[in-house]
Amino acid sequence: MMVRPNVARRRLEAGQTVLGMGVQQVTGAAVAGLALRCGFDFLFIDIEHSPVDAAAAANISAAALPLGIAPLVRVPGKNSPDISRLLDGGAQGIVVPHVDDAVEAAAAVRACKYPPLGMRSFFGLQPHFDYARHPAPQAMAAANDELLCIVMLESPRAIANADSIAAVPGVDVLLIGSNDLSLELGIPGQLQDPAIESAFAAVIAACKAHGKHAGLAGIVDPALLRRHIEA
What we know:
CATH topology: TIM Barrel
Order of helices and strands: HEHEHEHEHHEHHEHHEH
Oligomer: single chain
């Protein structure tokens, strides 16, 4: 069965670090090729903090798929009704913001993944399969294998629950929202504060314990980012 591979997922499973480019003010599909040329592994298409809408996200995602750069979309909220539409439109991963506990993480999985992992509704004509029809059971299994369900931890409560969140079947990545976390801790923008460092360590430990992947968002200082990658 021909399904577009999720390059970011494959590299994570191989133990590699992946880097993404945020898409927040650009709605043209050409951004996919530009990101690939710059050496990124995935696009972080942001509907939460930008004017990019679902239609633009789908156009960018469909353009990214044949290029081999994974389109990931951050939805506006953890109860977003657009998750299924964005996945049907070409996204290979959904980033669910402000997930604070295992119950919310499990809800994210249900929205993102087909049965038996989730409850996503099936649509047969998807760009992931070059719009070819395939039997539903095989297509759903193949789609689940390529999808990344990414939950964002952005509060002290989420950090305290990192282990139980990481234990949720179907969650693939725990992504730390560094800026909102620093706001919640009362130290806005102080991303080298010991409290932030401790939160990073807790999430990384939880991911290692449960075979999940840890991610960092909001860090733009190359030296700081490199230090955390190499830690």
